[in-house]
Amino acid sequence: MKYIKDCPEPGMGTWYFEIDQQGVAYRQLVIEDDGKCIASNRKDGDYHFMLAEQPIDTSEAGLILITQEEFEEVWSASLKSTGELWQRQKSLHPVGQRVEGAIEAFFPQGTLITLANTEAVGLADTGELELSGKPEWMYPLHVVQAVVKGYDEVNQWIELGQASVLERQTEPNPK
User: The whole model's pTM is what?
Assistant: First the structure.
């Protein structure tokens, strides 16, 4: 993995990325000028699940290679701000529990699912979901049923197994 930061222009904050050798982003964090933090592991009211959709060209002007330690320092600070919520979400979703939620986004790590009633973020294997239903069901708001198999502490995601996507959709949440 490579770690980069970008300060695009005044008023746009500082952007941090963890990318693979092809430039695909796995984690992204923006610290806005007012101190607000938007991280790719959590849904933001304005930016949804923000993660670069195209590979990042590290030769692009303005991008600065940083150390993994520098990236992890800002990422850890972001995780600390949601630590209490994360502990509560884990306690509400013990390993082995059957859960239901709605597809939110597709990331390199898998499919992000917002779990019903708790707003916890679940991570399901995209290939497993694709095998479980029809291709036209692999879209946001389609319902997924799964079993909690563990916890991704790096992203504060509930890891899901035995996941299947259903034809049924949830209603979008109004802002």
Answer: 0.92
Contacts of 112 (CB under 8 A, 6+ apart): 49, 103, 104, 105, 106, 121, 122, 123, 157
Query: Are 129 and 163 in contact, with CB atoms under 8 Å apart?
Result: yes
Closest to 149 in 3D by CA, of 115, 123, 117, 111: 123
For residue 174, the tally of other CB atoms under 10 A from its CB is: 4
User: What tens digit of pLDDT does each residue of 39-66 get?
Assistant: 999 999 888 999 999 999 998 888 999 9
| Paired sense of beta strands 98-107 and 142-152, if any | antiparallel
Q: What six digits make up the tokens of 77?
A: 């600070």
> How many CA atoms within 13 Å lie on the side-chain side of 23?
10
